Amino acid sequence: MKFQKSPGTQDILPGAVERWQFVEGKARELCRRYNFREIRTPMFESTELFQRGVGETTDIVEKEMYTFIDRGDRSLTLRPEGTAGVVRGYVENKLFGEPDLSKLYYIGPMFRYERAQAGRYRQFHQFGVEAIGAVDAALDAEVIALGYSFYTEVGLKGVRVEVNSVGTPEIRAAFRDRLLAFLEPKREILCKDCQSRMDRNPLRVLDCKTDQKHFTDAPSILDSLDDECRTHFEKVQQCLTDMDIPFEINHRLVRGLDYYTHTAFEFKAEGIGAIDTVGGGGRYNGLVADIGGPDQPGVGFGIGLERTVLLLEHQNTELPELNGIDVYVVALGEAAEREVSKTVYQLRARGIRAERDYQGRKMKAQMKSADRLGARFTAILGDDELVRGEIMLKEMATGDQRPVAMSALADELLR
Ligand code: HAM
User: Fold this and answer.
1) What digits encode the pLDDT tens for the residues 197-211?
2) Which of 88, 266, 277, 311 to mutate to test the pocket of ligand 1 (most atoms within 8 A of CB)?
3) What ligand 1 atom has the least distance to the C-alpha of 120?
4) Would the pTM of this model clear 0.70, i.e. be above it?
5) Which atom of ligand 1 is nearest to the CA of 112?
6) Structural domain boundaries of the chain?
7) Which residues of this UniProt protein bind L-histidine (predicted)?
8) Which of 183, 278, 344, 406 is 20 to 30 Å from the Cα of 199, by its Cα?
9) CA dist 47 to 22, 42, 80, 288, Å?
């Protein structure tokens, strides 16, 4: 019997995982600078949370959730995204009672039953942030700035920021009627997906890649905004301009989740087949109340880490931190062999990356291993050296070697 991973999942192996560690490290470090603190919420939640939070008519809830009944007869769902769980955690733990904003971030797996392709998986990972407790448009801009900085600091080029305002639910309802009046005469020439979206979620029709040619004269939601929405959107743009963050307005940008109000934005880049969205987010002023909390506004984003890593590979960005070791300790002879366990233990305790052989290999094979691991030094311990309390230290780059007192080995390596 042979087992294989499920479709749409990945093994991230040593050699590739270093890029992940780098990207995740950057996300954490950036969040510290922006004063966002980590929150870890469960991988599964009650199904109803996502139905309410993400929205009944979204693709995610209609077609993509991993939902199951547990042994206690509860309907549970593997989280398809991070926002609903974070907001639930914010409400349940009464974070709204604190005097400061809740600026939270998370890194972890999400699950959607989607058709797997390059850049689209069934288990994927997001780096997300959620800032809950303020309506100020400067906070929307801060969240966009954090996302933008993430891409630039991991070394990606060509990431574009697109912004839009999707107004309030009332404004969207009125716009929906205008849009349907425009779309209805075209129904027959639109693709099957668009036809079904017209009935369920007409704003999403504008997102369709194949039918763009039919939408050149489509009404713009920006013309339907009221004064409050317009002022908010203008301030977001002003703040981005002040920070020198390049952006484009895309009045057709509608996100695939229902909770957005006012600002919606996406990070886009070319290089992963047909997929160009690498991250997205926006403001959600009604979500906290919708899932039973107080009337607190929020704004956040989710950035796909698979897509980030794929783009880094596509752009051939160098791995800033290679996985190497400091020293490979080679034992020659039985007594030396016993000593080596102790030696590598002591070196590691001093913060030195040390490795040794466990396969009884000859010296030559061990030296090759040291080379493959990128060891800066090898330390060779023979029975003779052992008697003298010494070890032969060889610098791999130069080939220089000299005996060093065993008791001074760690200090030598740390010099
Ligand atoms: P989303 O647009 O559904 O938003 O997902 C955000 C990002 O997650 C996408 O831009 C993409 O990079 C990545 N992603 C989504 N689905 C997949 C998949 N099947 N395979 C690989 N990557 C994927 C949200 O999830 C919102 N919770 C974002 C947000 C946070 N809005 C406000 N706060």
Assistant:
1) 898 888 989 888 788
2) 277
3) 20
4) yes
5) 19
6) 17-167+225-314, 327-413
7) 81-83, 112, 126, 130, 255, 259-260
8) 278
9) 34, 13, 10, 17
